[in-house]
Amino acid sequence: MGDMTDDVRTVEWAGDGLRLLDQTVLPGRVEHVVVRDVEGLVDAIRRLVVRGAPALGVAGAFGVAIAMLQAEREGWDDAARGAAIARVREARPTAVNLAAGVDRAAALVGKGVDAVVAEAQAVLDEDVRGNRAIGAFGADWITARTPDRPLRILTHCNAGALATAGWGTALGVVRELHGRGRVEKVYADETRPLLQGARLTAWELVRAGIPCLVQADGAAPSTVLRGLVDVAVIGADRIAANGDTANKIGSVGVALACAAVGIPLVVAAPWSTVDLALASGDRIPIEERDPDEVLAWGGTRTAPGGAEGFNPAFDVTPARLVTALVTETGVLEVAKGETPGRAART
Questions:
Q1: Looking at the 3D structure of the chain, how many domains does it have?
Q2: Of the residues 237, 244, 275, 315, which is catalytic?
Q3: Beta bridge partners of 21
Q4: Domain containing residue 13
Q5: CATH of the domain at 74
Q6: 237 is a catalytic site residue
Q7: pLDDT tens digits along 240-293
Q8: Which residue, 97, 248, 267, 317, shows the most beta carbons closer than 10 Å to its own?
Q9: What dihedral do alpha carbons 23, 27, 33, 84 form, nearest 10°?
Q10: pTM of the model
Q11: How far is residue 290's CA from residue 257's CA, in Å, rounded to a whole number?
């Protein structure tokens, strides 16, 4: 059990490549892959070997170093190296952290690969420290606004140590509450299409000794409406300037149910997830994944021939449904008008 940051590292520099915990084979196996070229990293990002907005930011930053080393090995010119860095940056479109991590490291290309690796490591270290702060701020806010007893918490997708460089965002809040003796149980939505809640969130919760129940995504709104939940805590892949929040598909149903019964919907994410360049959520690009992820399972077709698949990976929850946004800098009460854009101007 214990602190997962002690024994599970999602992203780690291996000297000449990036060592990634392979999240596609969890919970059945704990395996790592080492990528030493851009093609391998882009493939790992797209296949969700590494996933979660903060972890993607770290992987993107280290990806600049991978491109530089590959350029040296293969004799690329500056244009080819730049194109390779751009491929990493664009591997997945919705999470702003990936592009931000690449851009931060790419600004140091002229100073050499060691400087880029050091900057990427700084991104990683800052994420772990920031997640600890998110956990504390979120737990304080929730404790002050919920019943004085162990809480029943709902979460959607995976926003734990596996989605970050360590500790987690939404699950970091849950883990902090658990450490204070304030968690009765966690409802972990299974999260279609790749069951990241059932496979990953439940795995983290079990390892941390936190009681959890895995439920179908379609059950989540009913669980809230039946009065079985005190607070919902989710992560985010991109947050617009007005507080609209993109998270894994199915989050909107949770948000609507929370609003209907008047319980808090808390979004926990690092400030790097806030994209002030986007005025509202309708400008957030929504990744559409392979239709086979919903038409088949385990390589076996489950839908009839002739049926087509629609597989958006994310949805956007309107700011009016977000009770609070927790970042490493504190808590914004979005529904009261404290949106990220306004906060940045004050």
A1: 2
A2: 237
A3: 32
A4: 4-126
A5: 1.20.120.420
A6: yes
A7: 999 999 999 999 999 999 999 999 999 999 999 999 999 999 999 999 999 999
A8: 267
A9: -10
A10: 0.93
A11: 29
